[in-house]
Specification:
By secondary structure, this protein is an alpha+beta fold. 50% of the residues lie in helices and 18% in strands. The chain has one domain. It has a five-stranded mixed sheet with strand order 1-2-3-5-4. The longest helix has 23 residues, at 33-55.
Length: 146
């Protein structure tokens, strides 16, 4: 559920699962909190896998890991060492182009019709070595969500 797009030694651009993933991977989870927790678990597993790749020297520790979304929790991301800024016009436009998919997936996660706040999209970034330093916090958060 966490995809690394156009990954190279300098940057990994993270994306959440697609509507196909929601239909086939998450169909057994009840909408609402259960679904949100499962998505969060998948995202945390993805970050922990990236850390493992860095530890195994399959990815350089100076890699920049970035993701853009409308559902980030600034406080949590700041605690984990992420830098937050306004999403670029390109990424915000991409979110609006995919509005229908994002609308139904967001509504499922909220267990009611809900409009995602695409206009408030943010970009979160972190260097690989900074992410590695947060491994224990990510593992703790993973266990809490699990």
């Amino acid at each position: 559920m966490l995809l690394g797009y156009m990954a190279n030694d300098k940057q990994i651009d993270l994306h959440s699962g697609t509507s196909f993933d929601h239909l086939f991977v998450l169909r057994n989870f009840k909408s609402g909190t259960s679904l949100r927790n499962r998505i969060m678990m998948y995202h945390l597993e993805g970050l922990l896998n990236i850390i493992q790749f860095i530890e195994d020297k399959r990815i350089p520790s100076n890699v920049n890991i970035v993701g853009t979304s409308y559902f980030f929790n600034d406080r949590t991301l700041n605690k984990l060492g992420f830098q937050i800024e306004k999403a670029s016009l390109f990424y915000r436009t991409n979110l609006f182009i995919n509005f229908i998919d994002l609308f139904w997936m967001y509504s499922l996660s909220k267990r009611k019709l809900a409009i995602p706040e695409l206009w408030d999209a943010k970009k979160a970034s972190i260097k690989g070595d900074t992410l590695m330093a947060q491994k224990s916090k990510l593992e703790g958060l993973y266990q809490k969500v699990k």
